[in-house]
Amino acid sequence: MPLTLKISQGTIDIPIEKYKGIALAVSGGIDSATLLYIMSEYIHENNLNTQIYALTVPNKTDSASGYHAQLVIEFVKRKFPVYIHHTIKSTIFDGGNKNAVIEKWVKELLLADKIQCEMNGVTANPKDPSFKFVQPKNPYVKPLIAREGKPKKYKRIGELDLHFPFANIDKQGISEITELKNITTKLLLITKSCTSPVYYHCGECWWCQERTWGFDIKYQQIQNRQEKTLPKTTQQKLHEKKMKLTKPTKDNILKI
Ligand SMILES: [Zn+2]
Predict the structure, then answer these.
(1) Residue 73 domain-assigned?
(2) What span, in angstroms and rounded, lies between the C-alpha atoms of 186 and 51?
(3) Are 116 and 20 in contact (CB under 8 A)?
(4) 129 and 87: one domain?
(5) In a domain, 117, yes or no
(6) Does 123 reside within a domain?
(7) Which of 92, 94, 96, 120 lies closest to 106, judged by CA?
(8) How many helices (H) and strands (E) in the chain?
(9) How many whole angstroms from 224 Cα to the centroid of ligand 1?
């Protein structure tokens, strides 16, 4: 039985059981992290020997992706002890093309008979009109054209099966999956979507705006939780301070 997940945007089917080896580009972002998580959970729960080959290609616009991808893989492996072979091929210094690097790597694994399929965590652009992109003042990385329209969920190129399980799912759909699996907060903390070389989350670029939109409710919940979980002593101290300022004590009255 394939991996099946039902969410409000549709059904996600991933025929993992058909393959002995699967290639997956793990970018350090939340989409590929979610895909890696659900694949690994399925492999673990069904006691399969499937080998996952993960590749991260840091480039100039996401130089920290190798770090975030490692955090993701460590998290998933601790939760589900499955086989994940991780490779990092940086193009930061030689300016190489990311997609060309991934393509070459997949071809080599296919020729070596290590994989029969490639999974791709690409998601759809926001479907809901509530997403309103505000153009940043500085130059920014635009969304991929491949995410527009109705992309295919499956392709076969030569001997390789290519699956795009999230092709028709947008960021709100991804947040629905992470909520189902109870990993939203964890993934928001260890992944990075922003393309700014300076900030972890610049809040302005297309990817930041999409992420904030997709996970809006959760961001608010985290914020509220952080306020509520202040150590009791601090809360008490604040309360006492406030009381002192508003209600004069016996000492204050005497001083006056
Ligand atoms: Zn950003």
Answers:
(1) yes
(2) 24
(3) yes
(4) yes
(5) yes
(6) yes
(7) 120
(8) 9, 8
(9) 23
Task: Tell me the CA–centroid distance for residue 141 and ligand 1, in Å.
Answer: 9
Q: Which domain holds residue 16?
A: 3-214
Q: By the 8 A CB rule, do 22 and 29 touch?
A: no
Q: Domain for residue 167, yes or no?
A: yes
Confidence band of 256 (pLDDT split at 50, 70, 90): very low
How many angstroms separate the alpha carbon of residue 219 from the centre of ligand 1? Answer: 15
Ion ligand 1 neighbours, Cβ < 5 Å:
194, 196, 202, 205, 208
C-alpha 21 – ligand 1 centre gap (Å): 34
What is the whole-number distance in angstroms between the Cα of residue 221 and the centre of ligand 1?
21
Going from the Cα of 213 to the center of ligand 1, the distance in angstroms, rounded, reads 13
pLDDT score for 229: 61
Model confidence band, residue 240 (pLDDT cutoffs 50, 70, 90): low
Percentages of the chain per state (helix, strand, coil), in multiples of 5:
45, 15, 40
7 and 111 in one domain? yes
Task: Answer yes or no: do 75 and 190 share one domain.
Answer: yes
Residue whose entry in the numeric block shows the structure tokens 């039985």: 1
